[in-house]
């Protein structure tokens, strides 16, 4: 029987994956003196959705190393990646402080499931690879903090997704079995983390993750939701099925 529903944040409750992608694209475009197009970065970013910040930066650095090193005063790998982090965070934090921008990216049907789950007595958890300060800004903007029994961020674990640590920690804190948790994710790495934790998972895809989720062949079709309007019904159908 399902007792807890665990939600990812970026790309699941709010399309901050889109904003993150755009912030990296703008940063690399700027740091390479416009020699790398923002579209090129956006295409590359799809491979790193769901990973922690250091892993994303490492991956993008590898993809655009030559252009970055050619345009920066100190071309050492450490210096280039640090410069990229600082530039990208400056852009991203401006985005997070823009409520009107954030509100346009709310995942309304996924948020409706969160509210419904809380009202129906399920334990509700946020498990995100964002750091706490960034996650809290987004949660405040959405006004959903009171709907959550537990908030876990990248700051609470040693291993990022696709490692299952964050999901296993949530189950441990709630004192429930993995099989009693249901995960709502959007990315391949998040799906892998949930499955490794032996938790059932629904993937609600978006423009960045849809192709990767389908091609990964990690889930049966019934657990992949391309139209978020179907999420609530399909989740509750699954929960009822588990009770029978």
What's the helix and strand layout?
Blueprint: E1 4-7, H1 16-31, H2 38-45, H3 53-70, H4 77-96, H5 99-103, H6 108-119, E2 123-127, H7 132-142, E3 150-152, H8 165-174, E4 181-185, H9 188-196, E5 201-204, H10 210-216, E6 224-225, H11 231-243
Parallel strand pairs: 1-2, 1-4, 2-3, 4-5, 5-6
Helix pairs in contact: 1-2, 1-4, 3-4
Protein name: Haloacid dehalogenase superfamily, subfamily IA, variant 3 with third motif having DD or ED
GO molecular function: catalytic activity; metal ion binding
Organism: Kriegella aquimaris
The helix tally amounts to 11
> Strand order, biggest sheet?
3-2-1-4-5-6
* Average pLDDT for all residues: 94
**The named CATH superfamily of the largest domain:** HAD superfamily/HAD-like
Q: What share of the residues lie within helices?
A: 40-55%
Please report which band the strand proportion falls in: under 5%, 5-15%, 15-25%, 25-35%, 35-45% or over 45%. Answer: 5-15%
* Main pleated sheet: 6 strands, parallel
Unreliable stretches (pLDDT < 50, length at least 5) are none
What radius of gyration results from the CA coordinates? 18 Å
Order of helix and strand elements from N to C terminus: EHHHHHHEHEHEHEHEH
- Characterize the overall form: elongated
Distance between the termini: 9 Å
Number of domains: 2
CATH topology of the largest domain: Rossmann fold
Count of individual beta strands: 6
CATH architecture of the largest domain: 3-Layer(aba) Sandwich
């Amino acid at each position: 029987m399902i007792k807890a529903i665990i939600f990812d944040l970026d790309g699941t409750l709010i399309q901050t994956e889109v904003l993150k992608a755009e912030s990296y694209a703008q940063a690399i475009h700027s740091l390479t003196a416009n020699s790398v197009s923002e579209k090129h970065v956006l295409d590359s970013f799809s491979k790193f959705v769901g990973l922690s910040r250091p892993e994303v930066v490492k991956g993008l650095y590898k993809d655009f190393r030559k252009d970055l090193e050619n345009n920066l005063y100190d071309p050492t790998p450490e210096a280039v990646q640090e410069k990229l982090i600082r530039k990208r965070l400056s852009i991203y934090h401006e985005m997070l402080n823009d409520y009107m921008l954030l509100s346009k990216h709310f995942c309304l049907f996924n948020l409706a499931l969160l509210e419904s789950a809380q009202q129906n007595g399920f334990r509700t958890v946020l498990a995100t690879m964002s750091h706490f300060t960034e996650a809290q800004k987004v949660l405040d903007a959405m006004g959903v903090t009171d709907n959550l029994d537990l908030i876990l961020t990248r700051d609470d674990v040693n291993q990022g997704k696709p490692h299952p640590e964050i999901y296993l920690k949530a189950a441990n804190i709630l004192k429930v079995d993995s099989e009693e948790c249901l995960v709502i994710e959007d990315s391949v790495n998040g799906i892998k983390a949930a499955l490794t934790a032996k938790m059932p998972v629904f993937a609600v895809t978006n423009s960045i993750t849809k192709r990767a989720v389908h091609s990964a062949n990690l889930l049966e079709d019934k657990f992949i939701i391309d139209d978020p309007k179907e999420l609530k019904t399909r989740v509750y159908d699954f929960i009822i099925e588990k009770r029978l």
